Amino acid sequence: MAPISSRGVRGRMRISATGTWSRSHGFTLVELAVVLVILSIAVTLVLPRFATLGQSNLNSSARHLATTVKALYNEAALRGETHLLVLQLDNGKYAVHRLVNKGELFEEQPVGEERELGDGIRFRDVWINGRGTVHSGEVKLHAYPVGWMDESTIHLQGDNERVVTVHIPSLAGMAEVYEEDRDF
Hints:
Elements: H1 7-12, H2 29-51, H3 53-79, E1 83-88, E2 93-102, E3 105-116, E4 122-128, E5 132-134, E6 138-143, E7 152-157, E8 163-168, E9 176-178
Antiparallel strand pairs: 1-2, 1-6, 2-3, 4-5, 4-7, 7-8, 8-9
């Protein structure tokens, strides 16, 4: 390739400048409209999630308690030992214990770690078939090795006064969670 020797030739040659556009800078109205539609869809989907954060914590605590009941029921049947679900209504904690035969006496031994309900969630009350409703203190629900459990209804309440009900039928071995205040 021959070098360009004269200034006149260099001035007349078309040289493309890198990065220059032939159209003006900025976005078109259509592009802006598409972005706004996408943002509005995202906000519509995400914003309701923030409003239900407390509700999901309440539901999560209820489901975890129901899962603990199912495990307790199965453990009692598999081991052939009576197990207890110990609910501490005043501080929102619960634990699983088993009754171990020590001659003429039975001794409670913890199984696993004590659990705590989520932040802002408390036991409102517990109804036990044959014993009535308890609002404070400690409640022990029995799971017997023969395949039945104390029928009971546990009400969990959040800071927003919303109530979730966990119902434990005597023979099913499975707790039912209702996202409302229910009595059985």
